[in-house]
Task: inverse folding
């Protein structure tokens, strides 16, 4: 166990583990992925329980993986393994037979549990019963469900205003629970509904809604199998969306080219050994990226403009052969102004800003020239920047020039992180609801929903610290570890009168709490959800807008768990009482009843209960996918957007830092301490640096350092990291989150979306100074 210093969020150890280094890999998956997946599942769940769950994961009629939102195939699915290594590890976490009872909490104080690292906390097991931490208490103690709901309801009803409470949602929450949750919160009287979208793809939603009229991607999984070029930007599929590798392999087999754009050379972008094929089992690697552009951190905008400029030059040389002028004429506005804007840039300057040689940019332009079946994928490496919204609009510019939206094999593909994060938003989990959505709620239910916008994640953290909030309620997730400026977030949480977490497992968010704290244990995706003697199913929405059913198969590890939907319904009944106009008992007894009401409120869910029972589910309407655009300002036209390049000036002792996942984690859940693709073993407190930067600064490989951020004249520090030389552009560094979320400033956010800028933090690196533990 690592010792800790008394940091505000208890996140800094004073000792390192036994770090081992190996050579970074140039391919992903293969036999090692199979082995790692099975070892975790068998260790945590046992062979019978574990294999039963694996064979039902992501299968038609089975349950949806609680990990990433990559879509399942519409047609045949692998009968052996329709899951990836990380999906299997996510299953191992929730299917574990280890459980936390009252005896565990009696033996472990909150302070002692906080001394553990995140990996150790997560491996303790499933929470088996509701627990309560009273004011001044040192240990969580068991509490009955009825009393837990009464305490929460009393706190909520004692507030001077409903806006003194905030209700967070994680991407694991089902469509049904998300719908009843937002309905309860709005009938209670607030739009304070921060969610994990605020921290990941909010920039995507804003940019696409303003550009193409819908805040979602425009492709299906089948488009990947019949396309000419796939561009992958700011995304690491080998670790974050491993099942995407199978789609990329199939695309390559069908003749597609792949352009990878990333500051780090990631194994899952370079090669893939498919363990479900003979070649993969034999160790034969499929090369994925035909061209790898090692862009500087946030050099994506410059790179996109450089590609567009070279394509424009080619169009001038051969008029009518490079750009899709019919598409531009019919579907866009601002084309002439956009070209005029491109004219002011010099290709050499753009190449320097991007950090990519002109010859490689020309190669990319040549691959895109005379092509219209182009798919552009992106994730957090694009969205979590000050100019995240603008960069995504630049992606739209590129797609519109080539006519690469609204046709088979072409389109925009934001790859979502958590499995139902897109479904949450569809179900109206949003702090800034549209008037027509609120009007519909009023029409169907008869109450007047609040109209003023609520708090998003960043606004919630600030409101906590400013004394504007008294109650924090989290439907899943690990709010503390996922958010920016961790110490500041911790200060805010500790100012709450009550913090409540609906959770499957213990995490650090339970250990940094308000005056009182309650943990409500809930069912996992793989658990059977039995209501009235009948096994219920829930539904989820994947990255490509498919609504599908999910039905657990495992017996829950405790009889004292409730589903998220039932927790919401019971809490609503106790809190709202006779004032409520909603029949919460109807929702609690039948998820079909919830879906019937979703159909009444949200467009696209006609015959919901009938269509979702069909194997594979159904697609939600997506006009942009069909080449129809409806934007608020430009009618049925897509605007070409003019954006300026970001200007990053660093002092000699400053570096850009991006936060990344290791291969052994999903979001804030740490599965293990190895990042075998990057060659890091048994340690997470490392910083990847360019060798030249290490030498210039007078550091050495393996040296211990402290990391500092001084944004807004406030010192933020992450102590005791090890320098690892790595192939990363000069001036750029990378670290794992959540360990360095403490360095992400609360007031450094993306324009328009308010997303924390976790992919570009300006840091200073100083020699490690041991702290006084007394």
Result:
């Amino acid at each position: 166990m690592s010792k800790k210093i008394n940091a505000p969020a208890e996140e800094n150890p004073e000792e390192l583990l036994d770090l081992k280094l190996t050579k970074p890999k140039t391919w992903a998956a293969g036999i090692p992925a199979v082995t790692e997946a099975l070892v975790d599942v068998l260790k945590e769940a046992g062979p019978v329980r574990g294999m039963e769950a694996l064979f039902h994961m992501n299968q038609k009629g089975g349950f949806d993986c609680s990990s990433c939102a990559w879509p399942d195939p519409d047609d045949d699915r692998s009968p052996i393994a329709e899951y990836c290594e990380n999906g299997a590890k996510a299953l191992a976490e929730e299917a574990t037979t280890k459980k936390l009872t009252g005896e565990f909490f009696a033996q472990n104080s909150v302070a002692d549990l906080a001394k553990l690292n995140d990996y150790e906390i997560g491996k303790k097991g499933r929470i088996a019963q509701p627990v309560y931490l009273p004011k001044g208490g040192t240990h969580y103690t068991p509490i009955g469900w009825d009393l837990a709901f009464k305490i929460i309801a009393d706190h909520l009803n004692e507030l001077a205003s409903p806006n003194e409470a905030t209700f967070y949602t994680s991407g694991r929450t089902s469509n049904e629970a998300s719908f009843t949750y937002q309905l309860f919160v709005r009938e209670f009287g607030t739009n304070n509904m921060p969610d994990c979208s605020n921290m990941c793809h909010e920039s995507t939603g804003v940019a696409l809604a303003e550009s193409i009229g819908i805040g979602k991607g425009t492709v299906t999984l089948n488009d990947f199998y019949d396309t000419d070029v796939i561009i992958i930007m700011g995304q690491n599929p080998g670790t974050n969306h491993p099942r995407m590798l199978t789609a990329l392999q199939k695309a390559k087999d069908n003749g597609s080219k792949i352009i990878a754009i990333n500051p780090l050379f990631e194994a899952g972008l370079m090669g893939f050994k498919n363990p479900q094929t003979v070649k993969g089992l034999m160790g034969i690697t499929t090369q994925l990226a035909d061209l790898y552009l090692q862009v500087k951190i946030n050099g994506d905008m410059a790179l996109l403009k450089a590609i567009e400029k070279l394509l424009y030059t080619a169009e001038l040389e051969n008029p009518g052969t490079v750009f899709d002028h019919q598409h531009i004429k019919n579907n866009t506005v601002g084309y002439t102004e956009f070209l005029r804007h491109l004219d002011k840039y010099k290709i050499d300057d753009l190449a320097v800003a991007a950090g990519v040689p002109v010859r490689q940019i020309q190669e990319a332009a040549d691959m895109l020239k005379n092509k219209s079946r182009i798919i552009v994928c992106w994730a957090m490496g694009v969205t979590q920047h000050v100019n995240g919204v603008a960069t995504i609009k630049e992606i739209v510019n590129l797609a519109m020039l080539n006519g690469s939206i609204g046709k088979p094999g072409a389109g925009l593909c934001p790859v979502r992180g958590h499995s139902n994060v897109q479904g949450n938003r569809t179900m109206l989990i949003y702090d800034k609801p549209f008037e027509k959505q609120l009007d519909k709620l009023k029409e169907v239910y008869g109450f007047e929903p609040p109209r003023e916008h609520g708090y998003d994640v960043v606004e919630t953290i600030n409101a906590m610290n400013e004394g504007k909030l008294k109650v924090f309620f989290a439907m899943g997730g690990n709010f503390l570890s996922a958010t920016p400026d961790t110490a500041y977030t911790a200060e805010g949480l500790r100012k709450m009168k009550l913090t409540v977490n609906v959770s499957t497992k213990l995490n650090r968010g339970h250990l940094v709490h308000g005056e009182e704290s309650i943990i409500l244990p809930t069912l996992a995706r793989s658990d059977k959800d039995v209501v009235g003697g009948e096994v219920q199913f829930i539904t989820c929405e994947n990255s490509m807008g498919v609504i599908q059913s999910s039905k657990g198969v495992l017996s829950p590890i405790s009889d004292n768990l409730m589903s998220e939907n039932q927790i919401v319904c019971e809490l609503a009944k106790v809190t709202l009482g006779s004032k409520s106009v909603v029949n919460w008992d109807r929702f609690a007894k039948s998820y079909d009843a919830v879906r019937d009401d979703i159909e009444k409120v949200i467009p696209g869910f006609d015959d919901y209960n009938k269509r979702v029972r069909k194997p594979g589910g159904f697609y939600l309407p997506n006009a942009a996918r069909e080449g129809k655009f409806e934007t608020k300002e430009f009618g049925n036209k897509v605007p070409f957007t003019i954006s300026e390049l970001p200007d990053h000036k660093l002092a000699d002792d400053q570096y850009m830092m991006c936060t990344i996942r290791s291969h052994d984690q999903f979001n804030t859940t740490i599965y293990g301490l190895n990042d075998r693709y990057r060659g890091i073993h048994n340690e997470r407190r490392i910083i990847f640096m360019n060798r030249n930067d290490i030498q210039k600064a007078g550091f050495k490989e393996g040296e211990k350092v402290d990391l500092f951020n001084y944004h807004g004249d406030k010192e933020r520090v992450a102590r005791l990291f090890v320098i690892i030389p790595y192939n990363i552009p000069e001036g750029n560094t990378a670290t794992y989150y959540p360990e360095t979320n403490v360095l992400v400033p609360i007031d450094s956010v993306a324009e328009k979306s308010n997303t924390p800028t976790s992919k570009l933090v300006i840091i200073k690196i100083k020699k490690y100074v041991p702290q006084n533990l007394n």
Remarks:
- The chain has 30 helices and 34 strands.
- The chain has three domains: 96-199+421-553+566-615, 205-408, 647-767.
- The chain has a mean pLDDT of 94.
